[in-house]
Specification:
Elements lengths: L2 E6 L5 H13 L4 E5 L8 H5 L7 E4 L2 E4 L1 H11 L8 H16 L2 H6 L15 H21 L13 H16 L5 H12 L1 H11 L8 H4 L3
Parallel strand pairs: 1-2
Antiparallel strand pairs: 1-3, 3-4
Helix pairs in contact: 1-3, 1-7, 4-6, 4-7, 7-8
The chain binds glutathione (GSH).
């Protein structure tokens, strides 16, 4: 093994999913170290990760935190993580950065929980506005670059898809109103072998890691 990827509880940790997808897409041989997240912050993370957050990657001497920095590190080793063409690549970076920086209302209203199905939960004017913008990003990206396959930039699942994947799990859990084209993209992301593998690993996690604040959503 060439290093370690520290991640949080797979059932809940949307940023960990992004980092893990990048690392696996790039084929890095690192050991996954799962730190179960705690309800009011996870004290153990402070000793492990420079920003006390996951994902955190240690690989062949490099120490990288922040999911977007992990994406760029992985893309240096596996350039196909970004689209090859300059203008498509610029667009992919822009939407990945927008996802990294934004959509707080959606995150708060519809927390990632891979084991819950609560249709209708979390719809606020602000979360619905975030969803509308995400649908717009999916539609415009696919219209411009996605003709060759089901993902944002066609046949290849890129770093941009990895950044958007956790939001697609929220759409599956909470079923907000979505356009048919968005639902097709949600289904394609869910069916990707790495996303499916993450769901399976999440389902196998200890029940004692579950947190009331994410489970008791009514
Ligand atoms: N901006 C960071 C966000 C990372 C983040 O917020 N991670 C959460 C888990 S999804 C975390 O580590 N929370 C600490 C805790 O719950 O104790 C990134 O892109 O990696």
């Amino acid at each position: 093994m060439a290093g370690k990827l520290y991640i949080g509880t797979r059932r809940y940790s949307s940023w960990s999913l992004r980092g893990w997808l990048m690392v696996r897409l790039a084929g890095l041989l690192v050991e996954d170290v799962v730190i179960p997240l705690q309800a009011a912050g996870t004290p153990g993370l402070r000793a492990l990760s420079p920003n006390a957050l996951v994902p955190y990657l240690e690989h062949e001497g490099a120490k990288i935190w922040e999911s977007l920095a992990i994406a760029e590190y992985c893309a240096e080793l596996a350039p196909a993580l970004w689209p090859a063409e300059r203008i498509a690549r610029a667009h992919a970076r822009a939407i990945a950065a927008e996802m990294h920086a934004g959509f707080g209302a959606l995150r708060r209203a519809m927390p990632m929980n891979l084991g819950r199905h609560v249709p209708g939960y979390g719809q606020t004017p602000e979360s619905l506005a975030d969803i509308s913008r995400i649908e717009d990003i999916i539609a415009t990206s696919r219209a411009a670059y996605g003709a060759g396959g089901p993902y944002l930039f066609g046949a290849a699942f890129t770093a941009a898809d990895a950044m958007f994947a956790p939001v697609m799990t929220r759409f599956l859990s909470y079923e907000p109103p979505l356009k048919a084209a968005t639902r097709h993209y949600v289904d394609a992301v869910r069916a990707h072998q790495l996303v499916a593998a993450w769901y399976d690993l999440a389902a196998a996690e200890a029940a004692t890691w579950r947190l009331d604040k994410y489970e008791n959503l009514t």
